Amino acid sequence: xxxxxxxxxxxxxxxxxxxxxxxxxxxxxxxxxxxxxxxxxxxxxxxxxxxxxxxxxxxxxxxxxxxxxxxxxxxxxxxxxxxxxxxxxxxxxxxxxxxxxxxxxxxxxxxxxxxxxxxxxxxxxxxxxxxxxxxxxxxxxxxxxxxxxxxxxxxxxxxxxxxxxxxxxxxxxxxxxxxxxxxxxxxxxxxxxxxxxxxxxxxxxxxxxxxxxxxxxxxxxxxxxxxxxxxxxxxxxxxxxxxxxxxxxxxxx
Length: 253
Known about the structure:
Elements: H1 10-19, E1 31-33, E2 38-40, E3 59-61, E4 69-70, E5 83-85, E6 93-94, E7 107-109, E8 131-133, E9 159-160, H2 186-252
Parallel strand pairs: 2-3, 3-5, 4-6, 5-7, 7-8
Antiparallel strand pairs: 1-2, 8-9
Pfam families: LRR_8
Membrane topology: Single-pass membrane protein
Domain LRRNT: 25-59
């Protein structure tokens, strides 16, 4: 005979949906390319890493979102990732085990975030990394390695394999060391001091000579003015005596 399978009740359907693992699909708002295995979630206003991604995803673009932190094994759902772009978010903290399991990661961008510190163990298990971009951050410690990285405001942009990062999983690259100041040549310093002293002495002597000359010139001019005034007064006195004698002579005549 024919056995009819009764329809499942709503309660049983809900129970099965809770027990069965969630289906792996493209996250809401993202664009997924099944052929190239690229997941594009840029500019979606995300606050966290999307969950339940396809495990064969090769590229994950999460730039231009609002992600603030990366927890432990944040990308455990996508172990085959080769490209991970987290630029232009608000990331302030990254767990040392964030990238655990991503042994094939080749390109990583954490540019334009708010990073202040990165643990040297972050890139420890990754042997294939060839491109690391840490530009435009505020970090002040990158751990101990043999490379260098582009930091906040560096005009050269992202760091590639040929630009100082050799991969190898030795940890994060550190900032370029400051150049040591050159030792001062003692003879050169003494000669500079002597020349400066001689020049200053000559200038002072010239200023003193100018002051003496100015005082002497002022004294001579004052003396000349006094003599000129005295001679004018004498000439006026002579003219007055001549005027007094003239009427007297006219009266006698």
